[in-house]
Amino acid sequence: MEWLLTTASLAILAAFVVPTVVQGTSVTESAKVERDLRAIRRSIEAFATGTGTLPRVLSRSGADVVASPSSSDSRGADSLATGYHAYVMDHLVRYDVASDAPEFDATLRRPDGSRFDGGHTLYAAVQLHGLTVTEAQELELSIDGGPTDALEGSNGSNGAGRFRYGTISGLFTAYYLVAPLAR
Asked: Within 13 A of 64's CA, how many CA atoms are on the CB side?
């Protein structure tokens, strides 16, 4: 009889705890991605303050940031794991905010049909891969305070704010605009 009461008590407790834990996982994953992006931003800003230039490649260990924006170094294949099973690419790309277009896609090639224009206002941006549209929308809410584009596409794209996302060269990609680039 005690065994039955214990089992019933645990089942009732689980009915309240499990939904809370499952719901909390999404918030935790979103918070981890946001925290990682803000840490990357602070590190890049500190690097720029100390050297007068932005890095081109992020270090995996975080101990140093190598190559300047004028460098032709393009390791590209490495990435840093973050929440949602997503990953941040280890390089910065220039992002044209007026045309809402990155200079390079995940393969470090100019995206098909790109409207990128180096004469527009540019930001240094990090790429995130492995997010779903729903996860990107949660991050947009957290980072930008809500949907930032009244014309947000039905295909799950966003073209405003510091956190942007959409399908680039056939791959759903998010970009976090880290710092404006001087002209």
From this structure: 3
Residue partners of 30: CB distance under 8 A and separation at least 6: 83, 84, 135, 138, 139, 142
**How many structural domains are present in the chain?**
1
Count CB-CB contacts under 10 A for residue 111: 20
Domain containing 40 equals: 3-180
> What span, in angstroms and rounded, lies between the C-alpha atoms of 126 and 121?
16
pLDDT tens for the chain, 183 residues: list them.
555 444 444 444 444 444 444 444 556 888 899 998 988 888 888 888 888 888 767 654 443 333 323 333 333 446 778 888 888 888 889 999 999 999 988 788 888 888 999 999 999 999 999 999 999 999 998 888 876 554 444 445 667 789 999 888 888 999 999 989 876
